[in-house]
Design a protein that fits this description.
Blueprint (H helix, E strand, L loop, with lengths): L1 H53 L15 E6 L9 H15 L10 E5 L4 H9 L3 E5 L7 H11 L8 E9 L5 E6 L11 H6 L11 H72 L5
Parallel strand pairs: 1-2, 1-4, 2-3
Antiparallel strand pairs: 4-5
Helix pairs in contact: 1-6, 4-6
Length: 286
């Protein structure tokens, strides 16, 4: 009994440092993503103020023809241990696909799935016979990575078609909600890979031509929008993972405490038994 309890205790004690390390890594990535989102918001608000001046207040969101072909950019999880992160996205996608059931097959959406764990989605998209393109989600919260990812998505997006983002949007109090978002701007830069890797962010704007300035600022806003959505998804994913690992840590701490008490009680019983046997052997008790 004691040996079995000791073995269980040692196994859990060996796992505990890894759980704590994964938990702290998720917490750090989560907080970093939230800080990046705040930075993006500040920078974008400044760009929008400039663009508003250049447009004399006429800047408006894009109008989408919902009867045209659609592209759905679905941002799934980058890693594992995210509980219901992907399942909640699938529930939203199911609802949206049911709403499109009466549309012709020609305008059924093409799915661009950004995820390092695409197997979770295969049966769902296969069931609905949707065109699916998979783009591995290798993203580390910096602008060049967002630009490179946008460039990889570009060839899958039909020209002139409407497109929408589906992702888990981070909200306050460690909560996230799956959303379908209409882009304010278009995305997917035409820069070459070499230009993207060497690009300065934010780029310098040294020009006095109003039309050229508008074009450059819109391009920067497109990149920021895509970067913010990716970063938001990363914040949500790490918040999910942190909660799972926090619960695992609490369960581990409770189990360690229970096993320690169980081991102490077993040792106490064994010592008591040995004392009784010695007392009997010495003739002190019968």
């Amino acid at each position: 009994m004691i040996e079995e309890t000791k073995k269980r205790l040692e196994n859990i004690q060996a796992i505990e440092p890894y759980l704590n390390a994964m938990r702290n890594t998720s917490l750090g990535s989560w907080k970093t993503a939230l800080n990046r989102i705040q930075t993006i918001h500040r920078y974008r608000s400044e760009l929008l103020e400039i663009l508003d001046i250049l447009n004399n207040g006429s800047e408006k969101p894009l109008a989408h023809d919902l009867a045209a072909a659609q592209n759905w950019i679905v941002i799934g999880s980058q890693k594992g241990l995210v509980s219901n992160f992907n399942r909640r996205l699938l529930e939203l996608l199911e609802k949206e696909i049911n709403d499109l059931a009466n549309l012709p097959q020609a305008v059924r959406p093409t799915i661009i799935l950004i995820s390092n764990r695409p197997s979770y989605f295969y049966s769902f998209f296969s069931k609905h016979a949707l065109r699916l393109h998979i783009v591995p989600f290798d993203y580390t919260l910096i602008h060049p990575h967002a630009a490179q990812l946008a460039k990889r998505i570009g060839p899958f997006v039909s020209g002139g078609s409407a497109f929408f983002y589906f992702y888990n949007q981070y909200t306050k109090s460690q909560n996230s909600i799956p959303v379908k978002q209409t882009p304010y701007h278009t995305i997917l830069s035409s820069k070459t890979e070499k230009e993207t890797e060497s690009a300065i962010w934010p780029p310098y704007l040294l020009d006095s031509d109003t039309a050229l300035l508008r074009e450059k600022i819109r391009g920067m806003l497109e990149s920021l929008e895509f970067q913010e959505i990716l970063t938001n998804s990363i914040a949500s994913e790490n918040a999910f993972r942190y909660r799972v690992l926090e619960e695992a840590k609490n369960n581990t701490d409770r189990l360690l405490n229970e096993l320690s008490i169980e081991l102490a009680m077993a040792r106490k019983k064994e010592i008591t038994k040995e004392i009784q046997e010695l007392a009997v052997a010495a003739g002190l008790v019968q």
